Amino acid sequence: xxxxxxxxxxxxxxxxxxxxxxxxxxxxxxxxxxxxxxxxxxxxxxxxxxxxxxxxxxxxxxxxxxxxxxxxxxxxxxxxxxxxxxxxxxxxxxxxxxxxxxxxxxxxxxxxxxxxxxxxxxxxxxxxxxxxxxxxxxxxxxxxxxxxxxxxxxxxxxxxxxxxxxxxxxxxxxxxxxxxxxxxxxxxxxxxxxxxxxxxxxxxxxxxxxxxxxxxxxxxxxxxxxxxxxxxxxxxxxxxxxxxxxxxxxxxxxxxxxxxxxxxxxxxxxxxxxxxxxxxxxxxxxxxxxxxxxxxxxxx
Length: 300
Known about the structure:
Helices cover about 55% and strands about 5% of the residues. By secondary structure, the chain is mainly alpha-helical. The chain folds into 2 domains: about 5-100, Tyrosine recombinase, N-terminal domain (DNA polymerase, domain 1), CATH 1.10.150; about 120-295, hpI Integrase, Chain A. Helix 1 (about 5-20) runs antiparallel to helix 2. It starts with 5 loop residues before the first helix and ends with a helix.
């Protein structure tokens, strides 16, 4: 059964749902429509064998459905269909694991953050005035926020010793005091280096600070201060979308996934992993994370 087509697999599952599970005609019709949409998505992405599908493709399909305007309740039902389909394929020993099992159900009533287009991100990070020390700082902060998918609380507390410009890594302390190391690309490296060599000393005026990003008073920027900075920069860049620091974090993850990065690596970089329950994500090597980031991040 290894060479069976996608459509034949869908027919087998629908037959199983009718005969073995005794589902209603309306449910069967919904399952059939959901599978047809998913199989079209797989083929559009060059996938003709079900064994070549994975968790990242399932997630990207759900993102595509959201972008089409499908409500969270409908996307949740769609994911239920895919989970059942893949569960059947595992039961029939066509696949070894269920890639849809790892994807969370879209939560009803909870709107996903807006994702910026890559061209809007570029306009945003290039908007600060490079002739001013604060402009160089702002550009470096925005670039690092997007390059590493940081939370704003992580960004404003990054220390000078936490950034390795030679290896292009930043060490951050995330939620629950969990430390992680995240790669960033050449665009962030260049802007951080320019800020360190041309602006930070001017802002400190002989004072010292362990924090990478400082204000004119030599103190770290607050979360509220960065939020205000981001709003002002977005207006300057001509971006009308309601941007928050999380918009860039969500854009970071979405852009990586859309360009082919695997979901596990992205989740590790985001620090969304609960190590006690999801051990598999902790085995992705740092070098692999850097390779994924360099290959797939649009500013890597």
